[in-house]
Amino acid sequence: MKLGGIRFAFVRVGRFFRLVWRLLPALVLLSILISLPLVWSWPANRGAHFTLHVFDVGQGDSSLVQCGRVQALVDGGPDRQALSGLGRSMPFTDRRIEYIFLTHPHDDHIFGLFTMLERYEIGRLVVSPYVVELLLGQELLALAESRGVPVTVAEAGDSFVLGDCGELVVLWPDERAEEEIRGSRDRTNDLSLVLELRSLTRQDQTGVLALLMGDAGFLVEDQLAARGVVCPVSVLKVGHHGSRYSTNIEFIRAATPESAVISVGENNYGHPSQVTLRRLGSFADQTFRTDHDGTVVFDLGSNFDF
């Protein structure tokens, strides 16, 4: 009887292992499916909690500010390249961008935003009062309305909080902007939104982390410097792709950036100008270019890094 019981036990154990072997592929697949959300969310949790990404989009502009799972996109570049940057920077399961800022409606800043509005849930679209002056701006506003995206027409002094990390503050334009830029080489560029990224934990001037200049040039820089709103910054996002008509000496001296970054690609405009690069070299510790360095990511946390 004992021998028969042992044989019966071995038979049962053998059947159990055969069953496990047959179910093994399904168990492996189930474990993979369970772990996928963790894998997909990994990019948002690795590295810095508070970051600025200046995407390599060729001759155009697109930057992403991240505070954990809160995102603010500034411009969308000339095509769909910024989508790839978002895919690498945001978790797969996160399909929401809290804010999209359009600095001005030139095609190298706006075209990519049409796809963003179609692919993502957008919390709010923020534009300058002059976005309607060009047809592309009107078309983007129409798309936002059709998709139920709230629109804010921003002016100097407006602030947009990004989670518990920081806020984007509009420095330009204000109600005097049109008068102040009379004689501008490019009215649309000089009516760009200029944004200052501040820390919520440091309220003095050391809390000014980045200055994003859009395509603003000398006239705007002079106005901002004269009004005393340009503070020392960790990162200067250089205006107008490093054009020789932006980033003057007085402005750089006021901003005294630790790092500067130029969003630029192959072009026929001479961007970035060697004159501008020399000016930056006199003040910034390091100057990055997306055409040479690819996408540049700055860690804006307590230990500033790139």
UniProtKB/TrEMBL annotation:
Q: Which SUPFAM superfamilies match?
A: Metallo-hydrolase/oxidoreductase
Q: Is Transmembrane helix one of the keywords?
A: yes
Q: Which Pfam families match?
A: Lactamase_B
Q: Which residues form the Metallo-beta-lactamase domain?
A: 59-266
State the UniProt keywords alphabetically: Membrane, Transmembrane, Transmembrane helix
TM ranges: 20-42
- Quick check: keyword Membrane in the entry? yes
Which InterPro entries does the protein's record reference?
ComA-like_MBL, Competence_DNA_uptake, Metallo-B-lactamas, RibonucZ/Hydroxyglut_hydro
Name the domain of life this protein comes from.
Answer: Bacteria
Q: What protein is this chain from? A: Metallo-beta-lactamase domain-containing protein
